[in-house]
Design a protein that fits this description.
This is DUF1768-domain-containing protein. By secondary structure, this protein is mostly helical. It has seven helices and four strands; from the N terminus they run αβββαααααβα. The chain has one domain: Tetracycline Repressor, domain 2 (Orthogonal Bundle). Helix content is 36%, strand content 7%. The longest helix has 18 residues. It is globular.
Length: 213
């Protein structure tokens, strides 16, 4: 669908927020690098459908909580200040890349605004929220896969981060966010902890396949 068709088909819809900014002109989709086929994280079901199971802590495994900037393992969050290289460009944090993925294929100019809009990860989050009406329509089906891709790049491009992740052994990794019940566990620890689960899958693959940095 062209940009003109997109706006023509939606101009009469009351669902669109008329106060939201207009997107930059649509550009041809850019080719993206595929993650190595040996990375098994892509085999899991990638959906934010609420029917997926919530996080259940295993009593037999040690547990590592991460979230607070001033506590250990903040490096496991997307907000840690570790740049990520993707398709020849530098993203200030993993969060910048993850938010850019929402627009990269259909609206690369929006993705570029997110990448260059400031080093703070919250700035990337806020910029993506401004353009939420132009997020790729299948985002809820691919969001976990895109998180895995961003994490793979982050941890394979930094030797210290890779070691930190591998040194956690078989510990359960839990994003202890009181607000996020999808990527974290939420205030009552009943959330799905998808970020922690993705990190555990990455850890398994880094260990099994001995992926070098």
């Amino acid at each position: 669908m062209g940009l003109l068709d997109f706006f023509s088909s939606s101009s009469s819809s009351s669902k669109r927020d008329r106060s939201s900014p207009s997107p930059p002109p649509k550009q041809p989709a850019r080719l993206t690098k595929e993650r190595p086929a040996k990375f098994r994280g892509s085999d899991v079901q990638h959906s934010s459908d609420a029917t997926q199971s919530n996080h259940t802590r295993s009593p037999s495994r040690p547990c590592i909580l991460f979230y607070d900037k001033h506590k250990p393992f903040y490096e496991f969050t997307n907000f840690s200040s570790h740049p990520v290289q993707y398709n020849g460009k530098t993203y200030p944090t993993c969060e910048h890349l993850f938010q850019s993925f929402k627009f990269m294929d259909e609206y690369p100019d929006i993705a570029e605004l997110i990448r260059t809009g400031g080093d703070r990860p919250m700035a990337a989050f806020d910029e993506a929220h401004r353009y939420q009406n132009w997020v790729r329509p299948d985002w809820r089906q691919v969001n976990v896969a895109k998180m895995e891709e961003a994490l793979y790049l982050k941890f394979t491009q930094n030797r210290e981060l890779k070691k930190l992740l591998l040194d956690t052994g078989d510990a359960e990794l839990v994003e202890d966010s009181p607000w996020d019940y999808f990527w974290g566990v939420g205030a009552n620890h009943s959330g799905r902890n998808e970020l922690g689960r993705a990190l555990e899958r990455l850890r398994d693959d880094l260990s099994e396949f001995n992926i070098s940095v």
